[in-house]
Amino acid sequence: MGKSTSLERNVKRAPGVYGWIDERLDLTAITEFACAKEVPEHKHSFWYYWGGISLFLFLTQLVSGVLLLLYFRPGADSYDSVRQITYDIDFGWLIRSAHSWSANLMVLAIFIHMFSVFFMKAYRKPREFGWWSGLVLAGLTLVFGFSGYLLPMDDLAFFATKVGLEIPRTIPVVGPFLVSLIQGGDSVSDVTIQRFFALHVVVLPLIFIGVLAFHLWLVQKHGNALPPDEELKPESERRSIPFFPNFFTKDLAMWLITLNVLAVLASLYPWQLGPQAEPASPAPDGIHPEWYFMSQFQVLKVFGKLMPGALGEAAGIIVFTVAGVMWTLIPLYDKDSARAVQARRATWFGLVVLGAFIALTIWGYADI
Amino acid sequence: MNYPVWVVPLLGTGWVVGLIAITHVPLSHFAVGGGLFLPWAERKALREGRRDWMPMLKAHSKFFLILTGVFGVATGVGIWFAIGLASPEGTSTLIHNFVFGWAIEWTFFLVELTTAAVYYYTWDRVSDELHMKIGWLYAASSILTLVIINGILSFMLTPGAAWLSVAGTGNEASKFWYAFFNPTYWPSLGLRVLICGSLAGIWALVTASRIDGYEQPELKASVIRWSSRWLIPAFMLMPVFFAWYIHQVPVEQRGLLVMGISTIGQGVFTQVTRSALITVMSSATIAAVVYFLAYRNPRDFGLGHAVAVLAMAVAATGFTEQAREMLRKPYVIGQHMFSNGIRKTPDVERLNREGYLTNSVWVRPEEKELWAKLDAARVPGAVVPAADPGSQDAQARLTRGELMVRGQCFACHTLDGYRPLRRLLAGRDREAIGNTVKMLYQYEESSPYRKYMPPLVGTEAEVACVVDYLDSLVNVPGAKKGAALAAAPTPVSAPSAGGKTK
Amino acid sequence: MKKDSNKVKPEKADGPGGATMGRRGFVKAGIGAMSVCYVGAVAYPVYRYLAAPAKRAEETAKISQIALPMDKLPPAGTALTFMFGSRPALLIHLADGTKVCLDAVCTHLGCTVKFETDLQRIHCACHGGVYDARTGKNVSGPPPKPLKPYKVEFANGQINISRA
Question: How far is the C-alpha of B315 from the C-alpha of B322, rounded, in Å?
């Protein structure tokens, strides 16, 4: 009965349509709740927006993705249908560029969000699950990117996918088997497009939305984390603004700006479509995976050169696995941060990971 | 022709100018707008007895001095160095016409620089009245630099019929004032002043966003609200001036606006669509953010949002400038000189008759002689490649082709970077390349390239060399990485050491 | 935590109420106009994207046959470019007397193609695509598909061209 009493409680409601709906759904309760929420305000507040920006870009992906779905035909026809979208359908080029650019920006925003969470030590108790669910979302985004990249099936997509699949292929024992399962045969083909398509538009979104809901619920439950240097301040010196409308407006402004950046990129630098992939033809010069896979790719390449054969591959995989596990489990062993001490070691670890990521990516591009 | 060709790999000379200009334009417009903003704000503060504004204004003027006096000035001079190298023929024409104009601008510029420094260093040291006077002097001189330079910039798009009628006669200077107050002078000046005003407001928002809204809520609110208002004129008048501006641009060039870019579907991807989309969205975003965030809730307006607004305004300005440059295609000086420095008349006709390289002062006479001898030994008009790629003739043809391409294409294209010739021609066989080249050479009324590319000029023999060279770029596998000139001693078709890395 | 939910006091209304209302109305109208622009900038491309097939179908349905007067027939070895509805088309009179009519929109990126009299073939100026003039088959260059042929018939002193 709790719910119905809250609906009937004596609150002043606005007249008109809003009032009518409000009376039935009790929107006022939501507003009141949102107004009561506080978002801390300090010199690192800027980083709070990046989760919201990632979320916004995900929503753009949903909308533009559904639009592309209207004309895209997976399988043998996929190149031709993307060609149609790009050149025949009015503004198809724009929708497609928006989807591609938004994907890249989303990966970027998630990386920024992840690193800012790391450096603000926002993974500390009780927010461990926030960190882990966030990592799952980041991983899913990368798989989204990888599976979506193949769908136009131009030569760049084809060879980049082939090259990208080299990474899982190096996993000892199961690698080759896994890759042939992923691509549905011993090479990238129409079958691969079909299954990447299913993955990209059904499986991944379903999982993603579920994990995202959990992630957002946690954020809502725990509130924004304070960085250690803010936590050290006495309560009276800390500042906060109400979530609604103050922070909400600022968040919305960031969304608008993001949309604007996306529009500029998509219309000024439209995504091109290369010639149709011909599996028999030699790979075009300088083929490489997307920028967010470049560092891993480069690690494998370097180890492959240092230690030829399976040994190098195994070493590369071990490096990834160790780094990944350490990254994931940071909330469990970073005990300094838990005591709200400036955790130098964790910061250094983060800086090393970030530095290695950037350096390897640049090295990868220079090494094409 | 008269000058050596500056080759910048990957980026192209255009982007060297472009990158410097992208930095310079927001700063120089800020220098003018901020010049008005500072004394105006000081006047308001004095009249209303708001001493609390002064520290903020002082901080802003320091920031202003460093930004415009160091970076603005350095990039401004940088543009001159860069355009002199990138487009010597065009720069020379401008100097010949406007040397007097530049002398005037230089004077104002010196006054501007001096007063900016004096204005900052005399805060709290001279009487308020004198300080105000220095401020206004700065504002006047900085606006006058814009008044002058705008004449030259708008001239490049629309030299005007009067000037064009004497262009190339040696009497160009007689039409100085016609060239200066050319058809797009006034709308362009209006647009630039509006941009200056809004950039001044936005830069002030950046400074104001750093005031602690909890310590001095009233100060922050008043400064932010007053600064926000500087954007209003731009939002109200920009469309009017823009329409006027477009109206003054010659019809042939306006055609570019509705034309689709040929690398992507035609008609669906016009410049108009792109610029409309971006301009409308960016203005709306800036307006919304400034109104809802800064104006309505100044206390919480932080540096992050201020910088985001600034970045967007800079991007919007940059895009407008780029669109203006696009509009000028295929000319560097409207209807007079093509982007590669070749004059529409009389250069095209003369070079077609006498030859492009023949007229270049940077080709050795003995080379010219050799080429003439080789041409004479060949059946006239034959476009077939020499049987032996290692022969002297084949080598000479590749060299000539490369020189032609450098001189006539490299103003806008690069080999592998921006507008890459190799990629644009990829997939075409020798014959298809020949067709494209022929089309640029014949430059018929119906040619789709006519709207944005200059004609290819030279004798038929020279044009045939261009085909040879472009074909070697695209279709000779060994020539992938090295350029013919660089590899001159060895045959171009020799396999390169690099090969494929993946 | 110190809660500072109240905003900075609203801007002082300068002048009498009427002026303030006028300004408020102006701001409201401005916000409204901006919102319309914004929504328009997003909605217009999406609308055009969704409506594209309908528009195309409409254009196709509009005209299925046109007639040209006999004197428009180009001399042997040349061709005529004319508009079939909203699309350019080529009527080619080959040297051996065969008459062929083809769609003149390049299947690569939609430029208008041209018949080259000297080589008796169809050429696209934009990216150098070449088609066979007899069949419309894409012979060289980037075009992915052949040009679509139209049916040509001669009757009552007219050239009747219709969709094949």
Answer: 10
Mean pLDDT of B111-131: 94
In Å, how far is C47's CA from the nearest CA of chain B?
Answer: 14
Name the pTM for this structure: 0.81
- The set of residues, in sequence order, having a beta carbon less than 8 Å from that of C67 and lying 6+ positions away, is C158, C159, C160, C161
Q: Any idea which of A183-192, B116-125, C5-14, C37-46 has the lowest mean pLDDT?
A: C5-14
Q: Residue B187's pLDDT is what?
A: 95
Q: Is the pLDDT of residue B361 over 80?
A: yes
How far is the C-alpha of B318 from the C-alpha of B113, rounded, in Å?
A: 24
Average model confidence (pLDDT) across chain B: 84
Say which residue the tokens 């020189």 belong to.
Answer: B403
Whole-complex ipTM: 0.84
> What would the pLDDT profile of A163-175 be if each residue is shown by its tens digit?
888 878 878 788 8
Nearest to B221 among C4, C8, C109 (CB): C8
- Sequence spans of domains, chain B: 13-338, 347-479
Could you say which of C30, C31, C141 has the minimum Cβ distance to residue B428? C141
Q: Which CATH number fits domain C65-163: 2.40.128.50, 1.20.1250.20, 3.40.50.720, 2.102.10.10?
A: 2.102.10.10
Higher pLDDT, B475 or B47: B47
Cβ of C45 within 8 Å of Cβ of A87? The answer is no
Largest interatomic CA distance in chain A: 76
CATH no. for B347-479 = 1.10.760
State the CATH architecture for A44-223+235-287. Up-down Bundle (1.20)
Report the distance separating Cα B73 and Cα B114, nearest Å: 12
C-alpha span between A347 and A352 (Å, rounded):
9
Cβ contact, residue pair B284, C41, below 8 Å: yes
Q: For chain B, how long is the longest CA-to-CA vector?
A: 89
Integer Cα distance of B43 and B48 in angstroms: 8
Give A310 to chain B, closest Cα distance, Å: 18
Amino acid A300: pLDDT? 83
Residue C85 corresponds to which tokens in the numbers above? 């509805």
Q: How far is C118 from chain B (nearest CA, A)?
A: 13
Per-domain residue ranges for chain A?
Answer: 1-36, 44-223+235-287
Q: Which residues of B50-71 are buried (b: 16+ CB within 10 A; e: fewer)?
A: beebbebbeebbebbbebbbee
Query: Touching check for A223 and chain C: CB below 8 Å?
Result: no
What is the maximal distance between C-alpha atoms in chain C? 93
- CB–CB contact A236 C2 (8 Å): yes
Asked whether the beta carbons of residue B305 and residue A45 sit closer than 8 angstroms, the reply is no
